[in-house]
Amino acid sequence: MKTLELQEKTHDEARQGEAFAPFAEEPNVFKKKFYIESYGCAMNFSDSEIVASLLYNEGFGATQNVEEADLILLNTCSIREKAELTVRKRLTEFRKLKLVRRSMLVGMLGCMAERLKGKLLEEEKLVDLVVGPDAYRSLPQLIKEAETGQKGVNVLLSRDETYADISPVRLNSNGITAFVSIMRGCNNMCSFCVVPFTRGRERSRDADSIVNECRDLFTQGFREVTLLGQNVDSYYWMDEQKDLTITFAKLLEMVASIDPLLRVRFSTSHPKDITDEVLFTMAKYNNICKYIHLPVQSGSTRVLQLMNRTYTREWYMAKVDRIKEIMPDCSISADIIAGFCTETEEDHQDTLSIMEYSKYDMSYMFFYSERPGTLAARRFTDDVPLDVKKRRLDEIVKLQNRMSQQSNLLDIGKTFEVLIEGNSKKSDSDWAGRTSQNKVLVFPKNITPLAKGDYVHVKVTAATGATLIGEIV
Ligand code: SAH
Ligand code: SF4
Ligand code: F3S
Predict the structure, then answer these.
(1) Nearest to 116 by CA among 380, 307, 371
(2) Shared domain check, 128 and 267
C-alpha cells in the first residue's frame, strides 16, 4: 500500500526519493498532476483515497497546489442545499484558472455528480467529467476521452461495487488515524435524505479485505481505524468458503483482534440496528473506542415517524439507557435536524428534552433543507419558516454547547489513555490526541521522549467547551 509520504514531499524531492518506488519503472512518472477536494461525509474522504489510488496507477501524482494541477477533482456532497452551493461557488473559482490553463480538466465526483448527472455538463460549462460514487473505476478511461475533447459522464450505480481490492492512497494523513470503508449505499429511506439516491443500494465489503487493509495500516504505523458506512450495524458478509456469517459485531472483533495497540472506531450507527452483541463486543475490547455516534434527528415520535426513522422517542431513550448500562463510560453524539416538515414548538421541545436525556457529548446540528426527489420532498410541504428553523436550531446549538462544556468539566481530575496524533494546533510544545471517548486532549510535551502514535496516560486539569487540557501522569 502506498502512503501519503508521496504527497507530503514536493515533487522534486519525491522524484529522488524512494517514496515513488511503485512507479520507478514507469518512464513518464507523474507527468501529470491531480488535485482533489472532498466535501461531505467521511465516506467521501475515503472515496477520494480510492480515486487517488486509481489515478496513481495511471501515472498521475497528487498535488496540493491547485495552480499546477492538470486535473482538478471535486468530490461533492448533496446532503443539504448549502453543500451544493459551496461546490458551485468553488467551480466558478476554477473557471478563472481554466482560462489561463486551457488543457486543465475539471471533474465532478460524488453525490452531487450522481444527483445532477449530465445537467452539470450542460449548465456548468467548465466541467469535463461527471463520475458517480460507483463508477470510479471508469475514471482513467473518461480522463483519456476528456483529453481528446470528449466530455464524459458515468453515474451508473452498482449493486456490488465495494472497491474491496483497491488499496487507498492516504491523503492528508497524519500517519496515525485512517478511515476504512466497510460498506456502501443505504437501504433506509429516511424521508429527508438524498443518500439512498446518490449512493444506491446497501452492500457490504468482503470482511477479509477489510481486516487485511486494517492490518496493513497497523504495519505501516497507523494506530486507529474508523470503520465507515452509512449504517454500519447492518454490515453483513457471508464467507462462503468458511460457511460463516459475519455481522458487524463479529467484524469489530476481527479488527480489534489485529493488535491491542490498534484502536477501532466506527460510524454511523442507526439506532434501530445497533445490537446488544455490538455493545458487548465494544465492552469486551479495550481497543474498541467507547464512543457511539447515534443520530436521533428528532425527539418527537410523530416527527420521527414522518422521517421514516422506524423508532420512537421511547425506543431511542431505551437504547441510550442500554449503552450506559453496558458501558457507563461510553460517550454518545448525535445528528439533529431542526424544523422538519410540520414540526411544532412541542415537537421541538421534545428534541431539546431528548438531548438532555441522552446527555450528548457532541452533536452535528442542522436545519431541515429540502432535497429534490426525496420522500419528504414528494410527500410533505417544507412548511416551517426559515426564521423559525434557524431560531430552533440556535436553541439546539446553545443547549449542546452547554452540555458539551458540562461533560468536559466532569472530566477534570480524571485520567485518560490518549493516542497521540501530533502537535497541538496552537503550539509545537504541546501534544494533541484523543481519548477513547473521542474528546481532544491537549497536554505539554515533557522530558519523556514520546512520538505520535504512542499511548500515554493524561490527567485532565482544565477544559473548554471543545477541548480537554491535561498533563502526563
Ligand atoms: N447515515 C447517517 C447520516 C448520514 S447524513 C445516519 O443515518 O445517521 C448526515 C446527517 O445529515 C443526517 O444524520 C442528518 O442529520 C443530516 N441530514 C440529512 N439530510 C438532511 C436534510 N435534508 N436537511 C438537513 N439535514 C439533513
Ligand atoms: Fe440517510 Fe437515513 Fe440512510 Fe442515514 S440511514 S444515509 S439518514 S437514509
Ligand atoms: Fe454527502 Fe453523499 Fe456523504 S450526500 S453526506 S457525501 S453520502
Answers:
(1) 371
(2) no
Q: Is residue 296 included in any domain, yes or no?
A: no
CATH of the domain at 123: 3.40.50.12160
Q: What is the CATH number of the domain that holds 425?
A: 2.40.50.140
The answer to whether the predicted template modeling score (pTM) of the entire model surpasses 0.85 is yes
Q: Note whether residue 294 is domain-resident.
A: no
Task: Give me the residue label for grid cell 412541542.
Answer: 346
> pLDDT in tens for each of the 473 residues of the chain?
233 322 322 222 222 222 222 333 344 456 799 999 999 999 999 999 999 999 999 999 999 999 899 999 999 999 999 999 999 999 888 888 888 888 899 999 999 999 998 887 787 677 999 999 999 999 999 999 999 988 889 999 999 999 999 999 999 899 999 999 999 999 999 999 999 999 999 999 999 999 999 999 999 999 999 999 999 999 999 988 888 999 999 999 999 999 999 999 999 999 999 999 999 999 999 999 999 999 999 999 999 999 999 999 999 999 999 999 999 999 999 999 999 999 999 999 999 999 999 999 999 999 999 999 999 999 999 999 999 999 999 999 999 999 999 999 999 999 999 999 999 999 999 999 999 999 999 999 987 789 999 999 999 999 988 899 999 99
The minimum-distance atom of ligand 3 relative to the CA of 43 is 3
Is 18 a domain residue? Answer: yes
- 376 CA from centroid of ligand 2 (Å): 13
Domain residues for the domain of 403 are 302-309+317-409
Asked whether the beta carbons of 415 and 459 are under 8 A apart, the reply is yes
Residue 132 domain-assigned? yes
Q: Are residues 276 and 337 in the same domain?
A: no
How far is residue 83's CA from residue 370's CA, in Å, rounded to a whole number?
Answer: 12
Residues 372 and 192: their CA atoms lie apart, in Å, by: 10
Ligand 2, residues at Cβ distance < 6 Å: 186, 188-190, 193, 195-196, 230-231, 270
Query: Cell triple for residue 184?
Result: 456502501
Distance CA 11, CA 21 (A): 13
Nearest residue to 403 via CA among 349, 343, 367, 358: 358
Contact yes or no for 237/206 (Cβ under 8 A): yes
Which ligand number lies closest to the CA of residue 371? 1
CATH of the domain at 405: 3.30.750.200
Ligand 3: residues with CB < 6 A are 40-41, 43-44, 77-79, 110-111, 194-195, 198-199
Number of domains forming the structure of the chain: 4
Region of 65 (left: φ > 0; alpha: ψ -120 to 50; beta: rest) is beta
What is the Å distance from ligand 2's center to 307 Cα? 10
